[in-house]
Structure formats: C-alpha cells, structure tokens
Amino acid sequence: MNRSWGPWGLFTLVLIVGSIYASVTRQREMITAYGYSYSHQGTLSINGTAAFREMYTLRDWDTQTIKRLSNAADQLDTIVWFPDAEQVPSHRATAWLDRWLSESPRTLVFVARGFDSTEPMYWRKAMADAPPQQRLEYRRRQARTEVLAESQPQIGTTNSFSNGWFTLDFQSHYTTAQDFGGPWAEQIDPLPQRLTTRATIRTFDPDTDSQLSTGLFRIDTVDEDEAVTMEPLLTSASGDTLAARLKSERWPDSQVLVLSTAECLLNLSLTEPANRALADRLIKQTGPPSDVGFLRTDMMGARVQGDSDDDLAAGMELLTQWPLSMTTMHVVLLGFIAILALLPIFGRPRRLPPPATGDFGEHVSAVAELLQRSGDTDYARQRISEYFVQVRGEESGPWVLPTAPAPEDKPPGDAN
C-alpha cells in the first residue's frame, strides 16, 4: 500500500534532519565543569579530574564513582573528594568519615576548592601555537577569564571553615605560592614552580575555631575528643600550608591528606610534567593499590546514608532531572508525532470500494494507457487529433494535425 507522507510527515522529517544537522555543525563550546571524574564532563572538561583518576587506574587501583557516604563507600580503602564549593566535611560527613577511618587502614584525600578554573591557562597555551592573526583574540579571552576569575570571590574578610580536624581559610583573592618547602619539595622532581590558590590549611584551634561553620551547615560544629595532628607536606615561602597529612589517635593506621588547591590535578594541568609529578607523589602517599572511590558532591556537600532517598543523577538519569526534564518532555512529544506521521494507521483491515465504472475519467485514463503501450508517438497524436476533429469539431489547435487521418487507419505493423 502506497502512502503519502503528508504535510505532518514532511514537517517531522525536516525537523529531525535539521536538528541533526544543527547538532553536528554547531560550534562546540568549551566544557569547564569542575571536579567531575566520570562521563563527558570529566573527560572533556579542562577542569575535570578524569586524567587524575586514570593515573590511579594505571597504577593498578580499582576506581569507582560514589555520590554519597553509604554502605557501598564503606567498603572502600580510599576516598578522593573534590568538593564543588568552599566547604569542609559537614558534621554528619565528619562523623561518618571518622568511623570509616577508625575501622581499618584507610586514606581520605580532600582537595579544597581553592582554585576555580584552568581556562586562563588554556588560552595562554593556545595563544602560543595560534596563527599570528588569532593571537590578539586569544589574548583578549585570556584576560577576560582572568578578570572573571578574580571577580568571582566575595571581596571582604577571610572565610574560614573547620570540621574539628583542620581549618581552611579562603582569601578574597588569589595568591601565588612558590619557593616550596616541606617533605614533598624534596621528593617531587620536577617540582611546579608556582601554585595558585585562595585557600590555606592550618591546624584546628579549639579556642578560636570551635564556632566556625562546617561548610554550609552553620549550626554544626565538631568537637573531637582525640586531638588531630597535622604534618605539613608542602609549604610556600610565606609559610602557608598547601598540602598536609592528618593523623588521629582514633585512627592511628589511617590518614587524611588535605590539599588547598586542585590546580595541579585538573585535566589541563596534568599536561605539564611538573604537575604530573606532584599528582604521582599524592597517589604514592595514598598507600598501596586497592579500591578507591571518587566522591562527587554538589554545593550542599557530601550526602550521608539516610539523608535522602534520591541519589545524584548521572548518565541517562540526567534526562529526568531539572532542567533537562523539560527538554525530555518535548523530545518525547516530538517522537509521538513522528510515529503517528510515519507509521501506518493501525486497526482492522477493510476492503476498499471498487472503482466506479461510470466515471468518464477512468475511460480517458484507460485509452491513454493503451496509447502508451503502443509505443508509437505519431499514432497516438493521430488518434488524439481524430478525437478533436470528429468528436469536438475543431479544425485547428495544439492537438489537431494539419491533415487528420481517416478513422480506419491502424497502427503501423498491424496487419489485421
């Protein structure tokens, strides 16, 4: 059965083809999502941590993604956490981690959000290899991203956060740390010449830090019974601690590694040999290869088992979360329209009514088909001219030949 696409079918086809063409030919924007170690946001983003995670894999670690501190995370030997805000572990997260560290030799790697984006570094690198006519534009983009990075923090006093283990001081502007000291400065070769950060690490002081907010949970404070000692691993010339190792009497066989900046661990940064050397030192400090989970959190910090029944969406689950859920509804509706337009109509088969025998148009069509079968154009024009002369009485016209043949003429080759 031949079916016409109809106006809706053609409209749907054009819409689908146009959408595919637009998605293929559109200019791709730079992905700058921070802290992701999985999916396209982790592998394609210049601020992702998929490359750092791959370094664990290449050193025989079994890596996985975790989105809450749950029973599944309880089986891990190491947790790597890149928080997506200026925060430290909340009261509930600290209690969960304190128990987790005390059960067996384990390591927590906490990388503070002291660095926002490597986009200025990207434009600086791209400008070095760009054609001369594009370098000015790249320099403008680099300057714009640097200005935006400096204007994002709130100008004002220092924001300090503590969970009872350590205290993070976030400055209102970036500082460049260089001339490093500490154990890592002697063990890392080559050592990065400088690191950019807004955060510094210091020992928790019960007298001054007990009332500091823990992340966004300002009513939660942690008062540890057993003191937590801090060993600086990497310091700057000004005395700021950039990397530290925490130990406690509650978990003597475990450790917490804290970094004030992720600049040296992001995807783009790991293209530099010095940053890879620092990342390799961090992995070695973590311990022998085992199971490591990369904890992904949002602005509200780490979720603990029992906080909520809803987990963070990933992959295809993102299509059910706002704002993509609105787009998903329209795509589903468009799919139904395409099905209704392109697929045959379902239902019980019906016998079509036979064509009418008294329709003169059918007679004209049948005669035309017979003339076409003869394969003789001259004979067909003679018969048509005969019709116009004898039936319609015309003596001239586009279909009337100069000398109309007699009615009894037959096609050439017909002997009967």
Jot down its keywords.
alpha/beta; 3-stranded antiparallel sheet; 10 strands; 16% strand; 7-stranded mixed sheet; 2 domains; 416 residues
Folded structure, characterized:
By secondary structure, the chain is of the alpha/beta class. The longest helix is centred in the N-terminal third of the chain and has 20 residues, at 6-25. Helix 4 (91-103) links the parallel strand 2 (78-81) and strand 3 (107-111). It is built from twelve helices and ten strands. The radius of gyration is 38 Å and the shape is elongated. Helix 1 packs across helix 10 and helix 5 (119-129) packs antiparallel against helix 6. It folds into two domains: 39-116 and 152-312, no CATH class; 360-416, no CATH class. Residues 213-224 have low confidence and may be disordered. The relative contact order is 0.15. The two termini are 40 Å apart. Residues 407-416 have a biased composition (Basic and acidic residues). The chain crosses the membrane at residues 322-343. Keywords: Membrane, Transmembrane, Transmembrane helix. Residues 393-416 are annotated as: Disordered. This is DUF4350 domain-containing protein.
